[in-house]
Amino acid sequence: MAEESGARSRPSRRAFLTAAATGGAGFAAGAAGATLLAGPPANGQAGAQDGRAGGGAGNGRVPRGSFRGEHQPGVLTGPALACLVAAFHCRDRDRTALAGTLRTLSDEMDALMAGRAPAPNAATLPPSDSSLLLGQGDQPALVTLSVGASLFDARYGLADRRPAELHPMGLLANDRLDPARTHGDLLVLVQGDHPDVCLHALRRLTGAAGDSLRLAWSQDGFARPDALATAGATDNRNLLGFKDGTGNPDAGNAALMDRAVWVGAGDGEPAWALGGTYVAVRLIRMFVERWDRTSLAAQERVMGRRKDSGAPLDGSRETDLPRYADDPRGERIPLDAHIRLANPRTAGPEKAMLRRGFNYSRGLDADGLLDQGLVFVSYQRRLVNFLQAQERLKGEPMEAFTRPEGGGFFYALPGARDGYLGQGLVEDQ
C-alpha cells in the first residue's frame, strides 16, 4: 500500500480546506448520520459527486467487476439505486470452521459481482438459485463484508487481532437503540440496480453459509437521484427532501482515499487489517409527519442549506462555501445549524469520512406513524472521527426530527488479491 501511494498524485491542501468548510448537507454524524469531513475532488469544488457505480455498466449503476484487489470495491463504489445491509451472528465452533465460512462467502461474492449464476441442480433437488432474477439477464451485485467487535470475543481466539478502535457502538447523541437492530459478528452491505438484486444476493449468501450464520437483522434501502442532475452537484435526496452527500470526498482520488479511508502502515493496527477501513452504520428514524408540518424557512435553518439547490444559506449554489467567519452571530447560517456544527474545527485528511446514505421505509409504527428514515454508512481511516462529529452535533435542532435506532461499528476487511476475505485474520501467520 505504501509503495503504491508514493506513485499517486498527492491531494492538495486546498481540497482538504474546501471540503472542511462546506459542512455536510443532508445528514451528518449524530442525530442524522455522518458529517462531511473530507476533501472534494481535485478540481476543488465542494460537493462534487463522488465515485458513482456504473462507468460503462450499461443502463445501471453497478458495474460487473472483479472481486480481487487490494481493497473491497464496494467501499468506494456507490451509492447504487438499491441497497441491503444485513448483520449476522457466527455459529461456527472454532476458527477453522470460521475460515471455511469466510472462504464460502468470498466465493459467493466473487460470483455475485461478476453476475455469474450457479450451475443448475437436477430437477429432483432444490434449485441452486432462487430464480429471483430470471428474465433480468446477468445482474451483478456489489457486496462488502465487514467484521464486528463481537467476533473478537473468546470463541475464536482473535482477541489480540482486534482493530485498535473497533468496539461495540454505545449510546450516542439522541440514540434509542433497538438491540434487535444493533451490532453483529459480520455485516454485509449489498448494492444493486434493483431491490431484487439485493434480495437475490442475500439469499445466495445465506444459502451458501447454511447453519454457520444466523441473520441478526437487516434493512433494505434505496437511493432517489434527481432526474435533472446538475454537473458537479449531489443528485441524491433523503426523505426530508434535502440533498444528501454534499461535499463527500472524491472516491476517485486514490491518494486522498489512502489518507482518508484506508488503514495503512503506521496507524497502529494489526498487520492483517492494512487496506481495510472502519465502518459506522446508523439506522436513523425520521419523524416525517412532524417535518412536513414545519415551515420551509425553519427546515432550512435547521439544515443551514436551501432545500431546492442545496446551497448554504449565505450562498447561491451547492458548491459555494459557507462563510462562517463573515457571520459570527449566525444571522445567515444559525450557529446551531446542522452544517455549522458538523464542520470540523481542523481541516485535513485526518478528519475525513466517506458517507453513503440510503432511504428506507418500514411501513407504520405502533402509533400509526410512518416509519421512514436513512440507512447511513460511513467509511473512515479512524473511527474517532465519527465519534468526534457525534459530540459536535449533540443537542442540535435536528434531534427533534430524527432518532438513531440501530446499526453498529464494524471493520471492512481488506481486499483479497488471492485467497479469501479475512484470511490474514483467521489463519496463523
SS summary, helix count? 10
Query: What is the arithmetic mean of pLDDT?
Result: 86
Fraction of residues in helices?
Answer: 10-25%
Shape: globular
**From N to C, what is the helix and strand string?**
HHEHEEHEHEHHHEEHEH
Major β-sheet profile: 8 strands, antiparallel
Strand content: 15-25%
Strand order of the largest sheet: 4-1-3-2-8-5-7-6
DSSP, total strands: 8
- Give me the Rg, rounded: 21 Å
| Termini separation | 19 Å
Q: Which structural class do the helices and strands define?
A: alpha+beta
GO molecular function, one term: peroxidase activity
Pfam family, one: Dyp_perox_C
Protein name: Deferrochelatase/peroxidase EfeB
Family: Belongs to the DyP-type peroxidase family.
Brief summary of the model shown:
With 429 residues, the protein is α+β, with helices and mostly antiparallel strands. 21% of the residues lie in helices and 18% in strands.
